[in-house]
Amino acid sequence: MGSSVKLNNGQKMPLLGLGCWQAPGDEVAAAVEAALLAGYRHIDTAYNYLNEDGVGRGIKAALASGKVKRSDIFVVTKLPMIGMQAGKVEKYLKKSIKALGLDYIDLYLVHAPLGFAERSETDPSSVTVYFQQLKMREVCKKHNIAITAYAPLASPGRKVLYEKRGVKIELPDLLNNPVVRLVAEKHNRTAAQVLLRFLVQQDIIVIPKSTNAGRIKQNGDIFNLQAGRAGHGSPAFPEPGRGWQKLHHARIPWR
Ligand code: A2P
To answer: Which of 41, 99, 125, 213 is the most buried (most CB within 10 A)?
Structure first.
């Protein structure tokens, strides 16, 4: 399994990225630096996250260590809804580049677009073991569009945020799903690693957010696993589809 996917414009996009939603300034700076030093090569932020300056500081610190080069890093940010007019795109793009303290970004996404563009390089979608989006993935494959699974852990952070605002939402607790936990125990891994590995081994890009150094490291340690079958040499993660059929593919009620 490779550690990146080739986009339809020829660029390579790393399968593992650090999500930065709900990570404020100084916290995100430390998280981005830790992630880059732990081997992440993709950072996902947005104008709307109000933390591009912190993300930029983290990137700068990692570059200053001499262990990472700018050309090795894939930085994604997003056009805010207030910039969704042809005449405003350049202005917002420049604002983001400046806040990040970079000369360029690698991918500029439209935040929360309506509809589906055949010529997109990547489609940010909610894909988890619970909500595998097989039909949408078929369409993307046909058009050579890579998929980024945001909230690949089913967004425990969203639940906390909504509850703080007095809104109760039902989200599947994938980190405590009995099947996921069983697979994790069997392979001596955490539930989060199982959820992430399940996606990357199908060439789905994942961007788990964490500002906790231990969890950042843990979420990045998903490539040195052998996908295979029990009893055939390497201990093993199930191949896509195998061992996962019993999971209930419920629709997550936030889209
Ligand atoms: P933390 O930053 O404290 O690690 P989102 O909800 O936006 O998808 O973000 C992921 C959420 O899951 C965050 O709240 C993050 O909290 C938490 N998280 C990230 N990695 C792990 C992990 N390995 N185990 C448990 N929780 C995690």
So the answer is: 41
Which of 10, 3, 13, 244 minimizes the C-alpha distance to 134? 244
3-state secondary structure of 140: helix
C-alpha angle 132-136-140 in degrees, rounded to nearest 5:
120
Digit-coded pLDDT (tens) for 132-147: 888 889 999 999 999 9
Atom of ligand 1 nearest to the CA of 22: 7
Q: Cα(43)–Cα(36) distance, rounded to whole angstroms?
A: 9
Quick one: tokens of 162? 């909504």
For the chain, the structural domain boundaries read 4-150, 153-202+214-223
d(CA 153, CA 149): 9
The whole-angstrom separation of Cα 152 and Cα 221 is: 15
Give the position, in ligand 1's atom list, of the atom nearest the Cα of 153: 8
Q: Is 42 annotated as a binding residue?
A: no
pTM of the model: 0.88
Residue identified by tokens 């852990």 is 153
Sequence-ordered list of residues with C-beta below 8 angstroms from that of 37, at least 6 positions apart, any chain: 62, 65, 67, 68
DSSP-derived secondary structure letter, 32: H
**Could you read off the pLDDT of 143-179 as tens digits, one per residue?**
999 999 988 998 888 888 888 888 887 778 889 988 8
Q: Which CATH class is domain 4-150?
A: alpha beta
